[in-house]
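Trying the structure run again after the queue cleared.
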Amino acid sequence: MRETAQGSSAGFLVSETASPGFVDRIARQQLPRLLAGFDPKAVRRRVTGITAPLGAGGVTWSTTESHAPEASLRSQIELITDSASETDTGLLITLDEIHQNQIAELRALATTVQHAFREDRQLAFVGAGLASAITDVVTTKVLTFLRRAERHALGPVASEDVARALRTPVEKSGRRVAEDVLDVMVEGTRGYPFLIQLVGAQRVWRRRRSEPEISMQSAHEGVSDALRPARQTCL
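Done. Tokens:
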């Protein structure tokens, strides 16, 4: 998932991946950037010294950030939801690739989100991850709050949608892929969202990248390589 922080008339979005340091990235980079873009008073100038009469140009100015990156996650969320409430909007935080390895940071985020809910702030949280990883996280005692969240399991993606997802980036990059080669890749994904990315971007695309057209050999090798961890898990 691409990391973004943007605002619109529909609300504000912070999108992150659950890799180490994601709480700091949200609190110190993304939310301050949102606030600076939304609040016209986020940056203010003040006089710090006068070394000569004003007419002689001896005034020293400094710039102060109202929404300092050092602020905590909780205080930043409070600031952005207060600002958003002025336009009847809110904040959406999305987190991809959730897993138990980042349980401490997930706990910090969940605690902050829960506090915002208790204060009836306009905040929504959406998390995504493999089904087994989500189960591990929501059943952890320190994250009981997340047990009450609505869970939605993604079913298989339709073949035509898989084909479009695989073909489009290939063609946009200037390469080609024949229909029979594409069929091998589509079948290899089994319609599983994670395998669409794994087969398309990591296992097939990176093979023989200098060739203008993806070969049947690359497709077969890439699919086999992508499915190997799944086969090993079943043994």
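The chain has eight helices and eight strands. Worth checking whether this holds up in the mutant runs.
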